[in-house]
Structures are given as structure tokens and as C-alpha cells.
Here is the input.
Amino acid sequence: MDFKKVLTNWYSVNKRDLPWRNTKNPYFIWLSEIIMQQTQIKQGLPYYEAFITNYPTVFDLANAEEQDVLKLWQGLGYYSRARNLHTSAKYVAKDLKGVFPNAYSDILKLKGIGDYTASAIASICFDEPTAVVDGNVYRVLSRYFGIDTPINSSKGIKEFKHLATTLIDASNPGDYNQALMEFGAIQCKPKNPNCNVCPLMNSCVALQKGNVDSLPIKLKKTKVTKKHINFLVFMSSDKRTLFEQRTTKGIWQKLYQFPLIETEDALPSDGFKTHPKITSYFNDIEYEYSLYNTKELIHKLSHQHLYTKFWIIEVDKLPKNSILISKLKTYPTPIVIGNFIEEFSFPI
Here is the structure.
């Protein structure tokens, strides 16, 4: 069976109508690839459309304020993607005069772009036969060829990249790569794949051996840590609050948040004022407090789960670095903070 021909024929009939598939503009393709990393199409599509509307060219994105870019990105997570996107846009606009690199090796040099994204852009926009390997590709190849090498091992990464490279259709690499990814997304799905109507069913090793559900193999993830976070939502009589920008490196770098205190265990309402970290934080400040959510809100990240509580702290006055409560929604925030701001009834 001609693997490449079957996939491209299937793609021509079954591909979804997505806006970035109607162009070879590398800026649009780049945006779509960065936004869709770690993101489902239905969630990422509105963000793609918002970025195209607000920043229709790489020059527009380059000239934007980083805070505005992060605000537009809010809710997508993995905020380093947005920061790297902005950094690379400035490089392309200023250093390369707006001309996007047209070769895999040069695209790979852009900040925030790895092998997968560089391969996708190079093949789709410039017809370079560079093989893409993402989660969908790993799944299709591991099942079809019956490969049980862990996909997140050094050996697996090299093995699947080599295999994908040997299979690529050099005459039409862009469509072939997209066909392979699309096939994994809507046909050879992680759960309940449509094997009974699969055009590759007669030659799929995993289907013949009855181990479709067990492939691909993935090594166990690093243990997820658990943290208890207490956000202090200050409110003064003149309707101001404290909102600080995270300057340390991490997933929320340069985003804004309420002051926080981390505790080893969940902090009960009746133990708030007597907890050592709370007493040392407030010292002799007079305040009234209430707990917004008695049950911790769980915010799941790839490497840690944050169990969060929001404490409403009422004071007479706040220092000069405080902001008007009415301005809260203009700042880029982690989604857990953004959701709270939307839900809580602030006095404005």
C-alpha cells in the first residue's frame, strides 16, 4: 500500500476548513503553529483570529507592547510562547526587514521555534521536504508500523524523526505533513480511533496485533507537585488594590497577580490571622478579611497543581504603588486570576 498516497487522498476529502490552510504566508502559518501548540483547534482558533485581526502583519506584532500581546494571549497558557513569539517578530521585522526565513535551518534559529514548528513552516510555505513529528504523527506512525519505542525517550525521538523523514513526499511535503497530522487528529485518535473505516486498516500493524489502544508508548511523567496558594485581594476605601508583576522566570513571567502567600497545607478561614506567614506579612496593619472560596480552586499545570484560595482583605489605605480596581481587567494575568476578576463583584 502506498502510505503517502493514501494519506494525501484521504486529506483532500476529509481535511477541516481552517483559515491557515488557505494561505502560504509564513507569518500566518507561524502564528497558527505557535498558538496551536498544546492547544485544541476549537480553543486556539479564536486566538488565531484575534491575533490576525489585531496584528495583521509581522510589523504590527513587532510594534505591539508586550503587555498587550500577553493580554491577548490570556487563557492559552504556556505564556513563554507569547513572549518568544513577540521577540521573534521584532527580530524578523527589524533585523530581517520583514522577510521571514525561507529555510528550515534559518527558521530554527528563531526564538521559540523547535524542530516541529520549523519543519511545518518550511514544508508548508517553502516546499522544503522536512518531516514534522508531533503527537498526532507519533500516534499514527507507532500504530501503523507497530513501534513500541517510547516516544518521549531519546531513542524514540530519533527513531520517529528518521522514519518520518524517509516517508515524506518530497514532491508535495506541505500537504503530506498536514495530511499526516490531520489523520492523527480526526481519524487515528488517541481514544476510540475509527479503525473500521480506516483507509490503512489492511496494513496497520497495531490493528493486526490488537494493540491499537496501547500505542504509542510513553515513559511516565515527572511527579506532579502540589502547592497551596493564597492570593490576597486587597480593597481600600478609595477602591484601589495591589497588583504585582511577576519578574522571576517561570510560566507566569511578566504576568500580573495579587500578592500571594504559599502555605504547606490548605489554610482554614479561622486560622488565617494566626498563621505565621500571615502575621509576618501584615505585621501591625489593621485589616478585615473574608474568604472568597471555601473550597480550593485547582489550577493544573504540566508540572504542578495549584490549590488556590482568594482572601478578600479590606483596609483603609494602600501604598502609592496600588492601582484602581477599575483597571484590573487591562492587565495580562494567569487564567486563574482572570477568572476570579471576572467573577468577583468588585466595588468600582
User: Anything to note?
Assistant: The chain has a mean pLDDT of 92. Residues 80-95 form the longest helix (16 residues). Strands lie at 225-236, 240-241, 244-245, 256-257, 260-263, 288-291, 297-300, 304-315, 323-324.
